[in-house]
Specification:
Length: 268
């Protein structure tokens, strides 16, 4: 009998599986950086701010991240991929995705060099590609087409993440052209939480796009800037969603069990 009870107890897992998925919009100033921890324990990073990635590395270490299953570089702009080389250096990364567009900037060259140094190859982020993430469904909904190289923002990898009945849309810097192509491609773009495109620039977040997304929350990743981000036009278009800005709230963390959604902010 003693043997059968010990067998019974040994079959119980020693660590409980997390039942919630957490989505962190990290306060990286004027840039983008998001971190996802799924209910099955997978970790994903989408962009990592500008130039110095030490803030993002410190943030991930605070979350007790050991390795990263998926890294996404939405597009070559420095305020999105600038810190990814440091994340690659600090953590073991399993898979890297980026759209098939290149750039000659130092930030982009450093990112490519860091990927190569880690012995990784970049997988193409494009419409319909499913990301291997346990505990949540993640699919790229853009780029739908190829764009001109002078149009780096429209090349942005746009990811839709779903856990149960709750969904998130990470748009990078996608602008009107990309948004129209997403709408015309007849994909499901609905999201409870929208990472607002291009830091709230007036050339993103069209009324027709927002009508398809129907966000309950609109997160603007923004810092001090001379571009006028976020613009009043976009702030008006985003109503009636609840707008949360990293320059006002610090890092913003959503948690969902698939049926409910909670949010907390962490002002530095």
């Amino acid at each position: 009998m003693a043997l059968s009870s010990s067998l019974l107890f040994s079959s119980t897992p020693t660590t409980a599986v997390t039942k919630t998925t957490a989505v962190h919009f990290i306060n990286v100033g004027q840039g983008d950086g998001s971190y996802v921890h799924t209910n099955s324990g997978d970790d994903m990073i989408i962009d990592a701010g500008n130039k110095d990635g030490s803030d993002v590395v410190a943030y991930l270490k605070k979350q007790k991240v050991k390795d990263i299953d998926v890294m996404i570089a939405t597009h070559p702009d420095a305020d999105h991929i600038g810190g990814l080389d440091e994340v690659l250096k600090a953590f073991k990364i399993k898979t890297v995705y980026a759209p098939k567009v290149s750039h000659t900037s130092i930030a982009y060259k450093e990112f490519l060099a860091a990927v190569k140094r880690e012995g990784l190859k970049i997988k193409t982020a494009t419409k319909g590609v499913k990301v291997p993430l346990k505990g949540a469904s993640a699919t790229f909904v853009a780029p739908v087409k190829t764009y001109s190289k002078s149009d780096l923002n429209d090349w942005s990898a746009v990811l839709r993440l779903v856990h149960g009945k709750k969904s998130f849309l990470f748009t990078g810097d996608a602008e009107f052209k990309s948004e129209t192509d997403m709408i015309n491609s007849k994909q499901n773009l609905q999201a409870n939480v929208l990472k607002v495109g291009h830091h709230g620039a007036k050339t993103s977040s069209s009324s027709s796009f927002l009508k398809k997304v129907k966000p309950q929350y609109a997160v603007i990743s923004v810092g001090k800037n001379h571009y006028g981000h976020p613009t009043n036009e976009v702030l008006n278009r985003l109503k009636p969603a609840k707008i949360l800005r990293t320059d006002q709230k610090g890092s913003i963390v959503f948690t969902t069990n698939g049926s409910t959604l909670t949010v907390k902010t962490e002002k530095k």
